[in-house]
Write a structure and sequence with these properties.
2 strands, MetI-like fold, single chain, 346 residues, 2 domains, 16 helices, two-stranded antiparallel sheet, mainly alpha
Amino acid sequence: MRAYIIRRLILLIPVMFGVSLLIFGVVQFFSPVQRATLYVSDPRQLAHLDEVVDKYGLNDPFWEQYGTWLNQLFHGNLGWSKIVAAPVGEAILKFLPTSLELALFAAPLIIIGGIFLGSKAAANKDKAIDHVSRVGAIIGWSLPTFWLGLVLLMVFYGYFRGLLPPERLSTEMNLLVNSDSFHQYTHLHTVDAILNGNLRVLGDSLRHLVLPVITLTVVNLAFVMRLMRSSMLESLGKGYVLTARAKGLDERTVVNKHARRNALIPVLTISGYLFAAIVSGVVITETIFNFKGLGWLAWQSAVHLDIPTVLGFALFTATVFVLANLVVDLLYARIDPRVRLGGRAK
């Protein structure tokens, strides 16, 4: 297992090199003067862009520019974010906790719920629970995210007069969180509220999380459930499952111990990428509920043509997905020993 982990970590180097090269290649579509504005933090510097071009070697050959860019990247210089009025790295770190908090609440519901419902549907194929689950999955997967979010907002915020509001906190709680009396250890409001022992902030934060979490869960749970059901049905038809049944094992043991373990493999891939997608920002959901995370930041950056922030967001997202892929591969190896043995029998 240790050798497999080392191999996977080594493979990250060329992957990240390729990702950085691709993102840097996109920057080359802009002229040197346009690229110089990526590093400008003071409007007065716009009158001296030629100096910025010389400083960062933006007229140098491609590979020299790439080396300079990598050096700036390793020093945390991703450019200046106009909409946040801060370095891009700081802007990403500022909005990351919001998306991370959303992922910590939505992803477990999606993954655990999808695995449970998919397993139940497969184990009860063509029975009532299977039919209900399949119809529910089709409906859930067919609902556009923006439509579902708007309907939930209209009902629970409009019709029920602010029962479940948008945004991350109410005005009163937001002032409290940003006051000197409240310590922001993690910038995750639910976690910080617990650490501060403040139940009012905790309750308000949870109330604001309900609608975006429901929106993400309904659509994605349907997909995970359908995938788990399909994988589970395939696993239940394998020879080792038939052998287990022939030995007289009860159905619960057959399903939980023999079938579900192998059925989880394709679901793991989706689960890893799903968590990575939420962490790196869900643009539509965060925009509808004014939940200011990385998705909201990406949308604002695109609308205001804030190129440094867009590129920084792209690099961050690519990194998150690469790391998610690494975690999924390690989980594969844990579940199926053939993976870490390179497919060889032992």
